Automatic annotation (TrEMBL):
The lineage of its organism: Bacteria, Bacillati, Bacillota, Bacilli, Bacillales. Gene3D superfamilies: Phosphoglycerate mutase-like (3.40.50.1240). This is Histidine phosphatase family protein. It comes from Rossellomorea vietnamensis. InterPro entries: His_Pase_superF_clade-1 (IPR013078), His_PPase_superfam (IPR029033), PGM_Phosphatase (IPR050275). One of its GO terms (molecular function) is phosphatase activity. Pfam families: His_Phos_1 (PF00300). GO terms for cellular component: cytoplasm.
Amino acid sequence: MELVFIRHGQGKHTLNLPDSLQIQDPTLTKKGVYQAQSLQSQIALEERDIVVISPVRRTLETANILTEDISCRKIVSPLVSPRMFPQNPEWKTLPCDRMLNQKLIKEQFPRFTIEEGLSEELWTSGINTIPEQEFNLLAETFLRWCKSQSVEHIYIVSHDGTINSYRQFIKGEKLTRKDFLKDAGWIKQSC
């Protein structure tokens, strides 16, 4: 089974750093929409595949565009929500990285399903600031779920820090911010 990590397209929260990081619920920019549309020709998504999406607007918009004409399973999960990389216990979640609530996701993205069986705290706080050991337990649970699915590919539409955290966990080697994917970048990872 192969995981394909996809970073969301360019979001408005990156246009005027560092001030723009204070934007709540930023959408994709026009360039970000174009990048998401370009992903359609780069990725051979099929109906039997699964797409797991972070519950943040820019990832939901990216996945919505990417899966526009594909009837695959689309699952929103806080297990792939924003995560700081590297971790610093003194840092707080930025407004641009706050997750949408489940009700809003169901209303605005009705083609997506909400991952069931996760704690309300995980849906509220996500994985952004949790300690490394706690993240590793959740990552192990998520990867076990991925392996239990009878599919060849699972596409994960997420964020640079989250993708690096999962890649580092899977590979067992240190990554840095230099390893971040660019906007709408993607990388395959055997699991």
